[in-house]
Amino acid sequence: MWNNYTTFLIVRVKLKWHRWFAFPVPFWVADEFCEALAELAWAGEKTLKCIPYHKDHKDRKLVSWINTISPSHLMDGLHNMVLELSRQKGLDIIEVETGEVKVKISLK
Question: Which strands, in side-by-side order, build the sheet including 101-107?
């Protein structure tokens, strides 16, 4: 049926001498994007774990964070946050004003 209500993430940007530019993003798009990023992070994590460490200490530090922090779990956490936010209606998330630029992110 067409009567299902879709939650949108509305990103509004205003420059000092221009009107508001609004970018509506349906939550199902953000959900699919986070799911794809989690799968991509998992594949990258598995690939980087197979690469042997270099003897140089600086290079080892750059790659060793993958063993301590799982990028795929971070993306899963982001995906869960998007799912929780999709249940909210009429919520202003961020409103930032710096100099000539004003950005507002809200749920509708």
Answer: 20-26, 8-15, 101-107, 92-98
Give the global pTM. 0.60
Domain boundaries, the chain: 8-107
Does residue 76 carry a pLDDT above 50? yes
Sequence-distant (≥ 6) Cβ neighbours of residue 89 within 8 angstroms: 7, 107, 108
CB 79 within 8 A of CB 31: yes
Asked whether 95 and 104 are in contact (CB, 8 A), the reply is yes
Q: How far apart are CA 70 and CA 75, in angstroms?
A: 9
Average pLDDT of the chain, as a whole number: 77
The 10 Å Cβ neighbour count of residue 94 is: 9
